[in-house]
Every structure is written in C-alpha cells, then in structure tokens.
Design a protein that fits this description.
Radius of gyration: 12 Å
Low-confidence stretches: none
Order of helices and strands: EHHHEHE
Number of domains: 1
Largest sheet: 3 strands, parallel
CATH architecture: 2-Layer Sandwich
CATH superfamily: Barstar-like
Distance between the termini: 24 Å
Helix content: 40-55%
Structural class: alpha/beta
C-alpha cells in the first residue's frame, strides 16, 4: 500500500488524522492524538509505504517524529520524506 501525505496541503492535525483514518483504515476507537497514531502505525500488518511531503511545515513537524519512530518499530511500515 502506498499513502501520500502532504502536510502543507492537509494543514492541520485534524485533517491529517481524518486522512490517515481513511487511507489506513484505522479503527473506530482511534484516539486522534500522537500516542494513538503511533499505536495504529505500529499495528500496520501489511507492507505500507508512507511518502511524506511538507514536513517543514508546522503540521509536518508535529507528526514527523511519530512516523519515523513507528517505521523503526514496524517491519511492515516504511517512511520516505520528500521535500522540494
């Protein structure tokens, strides 16, 4: 699975949570905070590649560390950061 996440376009944490919930089929009980996001990302069980753009934006900076840490902990998750 390939998921493209442009933080500049999405603009707010709420929009990012909405987008990821749809794209990654997070459960209904997803808590919409960084800890819950980390938990859901580390639970991904099919090969998933997240391509992140706009990580220099405030929204991107808010999420970047969680994505990178989850990818280190989950063999099914890879994260690529593309800028410029």
């Amino acid at each position: 699975m390939l998921v493209l996440c442009d933080f500049e376009r999405l603009g707010t944490p709420e929009a990012v949570y909405d987008y990821l919930t749809r794209e990654l089929a997070f459960p209904a009980y997803f808590g919409r905070n960084l800890d819950a996001l980390h938990d859901c990302l580390t639970d991904v069980s099919t090969p998933t590649r997240l391509v992140l753009t706009g990580t220099g934006s405030p929204c991107g900076q808010y999420f970047l560390r969680v994505f990178k840490d989850a990818a280190r902990r989950n063999k099914y998750l890879s994260v690529e950061v593309h800028e410029g």
